[in-house]
Amino acid sequence: MKKQAYVVMADGSEEMETVIVVDVLRRGGIDVCVAGIGGGRILTSSRGVRIVPDEAWNSEAAKQADALVIPGGAAGVDVLRMDEGVKQVVGERMFMESWVASICAGPLVLHDAGVLKGRRFTSYPSVRNEFSEGTWVDERVVRDGRLITSQGPGTAFDFALALLEVLADAGTAAQVAADMLWNR
The whole model's pTM is what? Predict the structure, then answer.
């Protein structure tokens, strides 16, 4: 059965961290759904790029996917941090056999959901002082159990390929990287 990733975004989400993840995962054969907070309407990303989600946020669909992906972008993360449904799904997923992946300021959503205690993670360096639980590390991509975190737009390819590796396999991730001329 084909693996599925559920990427949640809102107005203000970082477009590179959203689109690069979607693109890399789809190149690797992963079924990806971009879900928009606020309905299925067109969303405006952090740099003004307009993105049409595949569907409106749906907690049940998010629970069924093999991976939940939370991009950064300060304004988008603020919206996700206020959404109780998103935080509830993040909390539940951490106890399931599924992946949670977050990049840039996105790990603040994980913090608010209470799932970073006892875990190693990373984020955009300027928000590191906002975390009161877990161990922040200065690495491009950090994997702790079924949690994958990354630092920002410049690490989006590394992040997406790390997620592809666990959803597909190392060979698929290496082939996608090679096809994109990405030096890992």
Answer: 0.96
